[in-house]
Amino acid sequence: MVGAQLSGFDTMVRLTETNDFMLIEGDEYLSSPIDLRSKFLWYQPQVALISELLGTTSMFFLAAIPTKINLKKFIETISPGVLVYNQQDSVLTRLAIQTQNTIRKHSYDLPEHTITDGITYLMTSEGDLPLSVFGEHNLSNLAGAKWICQLMGIDEMDFYEAIESFEGAAKRLEKGELGIPLVYSKDFAHAPSKVTATVKAVKINILPISW
Predict the structure, then answer these.
(1) List of E strands, the chain
(2) From CA 141, how far away is CA 186, in angstroms rounded?
(3) How far, in Å, CA of 120 to CA of 125, rounded?
């Protein structure tokens, strides 16, 4: 279950009785108008990835912001299991370290990479891998996703082969061409941290080759 359209998938929600895993993109918003608990507190996952702690979002969703309290409660619901977290987020790192839940913990960081002519190359043991996505936010998410895939039994090289052609989610730092030298980036900003990440990525990866 994914909250944005991904290339290659006709539908973003599918349930079966045969698969070994259920993979869910977490939703921190309200359970319902009369239940103000975050939706992710119902999941009780065996493996969980937390990418960052958002500080603010629109006032409409203010009651559903994934605060430290909500995330602390969420971490306690992982059983039996593994927590994968972004160590670049200092508050999130403290929550992971301080939890009393006896779970395995794996942290990740921004992976090593280079940028040449607007193309981001992921540095791997097999050489530099060109990516279709760009920006530190996407690269950080890629590192977290790699951990999740490995915990699901997916081989590292299979992950790299798949991620090379991954174009990202629709309207999430989506890049296109209007004719040389014009390019555009389609995105929506639902939190200040997202605006910052998008602007930084465009400055580094798009503007130098556009101008």
Answers:
(1) 30-32, 35-38, 47-50, 82-86, 104-108, 113-116, 119-124, 127-130, 174-179, 182-186
(2) 19
(3) 16
pLDDT in tens, 127-184: 999 998 878 888 999 999 999 999 999 999 999 999 988 876 655 555 555 455 445 5
Global pTM?
Answer: 0.75
User: Which residue, among 84, 81, 87, 95, has the nearest Cα to 147 in the 3D structure?
Assistant: 84
Q: Could you give the residue ranges of the DSSP H alpha helices within the chain?
A: 68-76, 90-98, 136-151, 156-164, 192-205, 207-210
Percent of the chain at pLDDT above 90? Answer: 36
- Using only C-alpha atoms, what is the Rg of the chain? 18
| C-alpha–C-alpha distance, residues 104 and 110, integer Å | 21
Which residues on neighbouring strands pair with residue 6, listed in sequence order?
169
